[in-house]
Amino acid sequence: MIDLKKEIAKSIAKLENIEIEKIEEYMEVPKEKNNGDYSLPCFKLAKELKKSPVSIADEIKNRINISSDIVEKIEAVNGYLNFYVNSNILIKEVIEEFNKEKENFGNQDIGKGKNVIVEYSSPNIAKPFHIGHLRTTLIGRALYNIYKTLGFNTIGINHLGDYGTQFGKMIEGYKRWGNEYDLSTNPIEKLEQMYVRINTLCKEDESVLEQARENFRLLENGDKYCGDIWEKFKELSLKEFDKIYEILNIKFDVVEGEAFFAKRADEVIKALEKSGKLQKSNGAEIVDLTEDGINTPCIIRKSNGSTIYASRDLATIIYRAKTYNYDKNIYVVGNEQKLYFEQIFKVAKYLGLEQKYVEGLEHVWYGMVRLTTGRMSTREGNVIKVKELLDESISRVKDIMKERDIENKEEVAKKVGIGAVIFNDLFGNRIKDEVFDWNEVLNFNGETGPYCQYITVRCKSVLEKAKYLPEINTVKYEYLKDAEAINVIKTISNFKETLVRAMQKNEPSILTKYIVELAENYSNFYNNNQIICEDKEIQNSRLYLTYMTKIVLEKALNILGIEVPDKM
Ligand code: ARG
Question: For the chain: N or C, fewer Cβ within 10 A?
Answer without folding.
Answer: N
